[in-house]
Amino acid sequence: MTTYHSPHPSSSPLRPDRSCGKLLAVATMLLALGSVALADSPAFPEASYRKHIEVLSSDAFEGRAPGTEGEQKTLAYLEQQFRAAGLQPGIGNSFLQPVPMVEITPHADAAMQLVGAGDKSLALRSPDDLVVWTKRPVPSSGIANTEVVYAGYGIVAPEYGWNDYADLDVRGKLVLALVNDPGYATQDPKLFTGNAMTYYGRWDYKFAEALRQGAAGLLVIHETKAAGYPWDVPRNGASKPQFDLLIDDYEAKRLALEGWITEDAASRVLSAAGMDFAALKKTSSTRGFRGAATGIKASMSVRNDVRQATSYNVVGRVPGSQRPDEAFVYTAHWDHLGKTANAGPGEDAIFNGAQDNATGVSALIELGRAFAATKPAPQRSVMFVAVTAEESGLLGSEYFAAHPPIPVAQMVGGLNMDNLYSVGKTRDITVIGSGKSELEDDLRTAAARQGRVPVQEPSPILLPPARTKLQPRLACRCCTRRPASTARRWARTTASSGSRNTPRSATTRYRTSTRPPGT
Length: 519
Prior knowledge:
Layout: H1 21-33, H2 46-56, H3 69-84, E1 88-89, E2 96-108, E3 111-115, E4 121-125, E5 130-133, E6 140-150, E7 156-157, E8 162-163, E9 174-178, H4 182-186, E10 197-198, H5 203-212, E11 217-222, H6 224-227, H7 232-237, E12 242-245, H8 250-253, E13 257-262, H9 263-272, H10 277-283, E14 292-318, E15 323-333, H11 354-373, E16 380-387, H12 395-402, E17 411-417, E18 428-431, H13 440-449, E19 453-456, E20 462-463, E21 472-475, H14 486-494, E22 505-510
Helix pairs in contact: 1-13, 2-11
């Protein structure tokens, strides 16, 4: 995607009634990304913005999970509000873009059976020692008498001179790989990106790389600090229904088995193979490390309940006055986590998702209203996309990118909004992935006009693999009215925009998900 740089407008498309931090954050980015000098910039009504959040996060919307009645209510509300805001349909004559998906509910065996030299056996119990699933939309999938191979971090990164699979045959085998990347493990700023996690540290990258290497499956070795969340997160999430895009040739595109294994359980497996996990972990962070077969064979299977489903992105647009075939794209995901099926008596079963992400989609509506009322109209078209299934792995975004209503080459820039800050005025803007977006020069200029300053994220968090033009997002720390489950507590503490420079800060984050499936 090409980033569009332009003269900054003399006034912002947003003029919040009060200087709330969340609206200032949006205004900052709009100043940075403004396409024309706006002669008549309408105000951004805070009362309307708050009302959308209240409606979308109400119990009536049941947590806005895809494939539920809550989705139908959400779609109807968004289409109604897009029309009322003055937006035109963005998918032909419709506001709705169908996203074909498959819903998979896994039921794993109680244990993984492992056999080593001399027929010595070891059983790893689910979910205390490991959790597994498959994204193959089949009644059952698994491994039988499959060799286990340790592959360090499971990374192939030519730009960093790193290849954990060099001279290692993992075809048809089960791979064990450490979470995160060597830079975080060593805190060496010259190794990968040091403290900040790269794309190569993500669990979904490791699954994808293992598939490219021909593996049958991969278990990510969990470590709380390196992962950014405790074991309870994958433990509680793995058995929940998981969505995936409906694809052909799934055997070539999905592993037979994916999952997580605790650090203690991985240590026991490697010890049974005569390998010292602590020593392996240390040497895995050194350049030139080579993985090794363990001599242990594993068996485990997963049964699936599978159903096909269709969810929807909601797309509206404001036509450009001079270059209508080009567009700047604003996105926000409308989905949240729905309801819990095992709530106790009197427990609030609904994950309302006020912060994540009724804030972002509400801003999307009011941004659409502001741009639709702006005179003169922007030179380029402005597109507003409320995407589905972000919590399932950015599925709506992935589908929109693969099936765009206009060619991607004609999308001149993009901004995603997620977890907009809601505490108050902010002084700094924490940039997660500093140096990775061409929009940052504009951000610095716009921030300076408001007496604010961008700062680099001080805590370990995800970075893209190289300088790209990915969509940044604004993120924040908490979600309103979540049941007190461990997964929700994790979300409150790790989907963070907090900066150590000040207790109040807004965050620009690259649009990638760091959650395990189902959480």
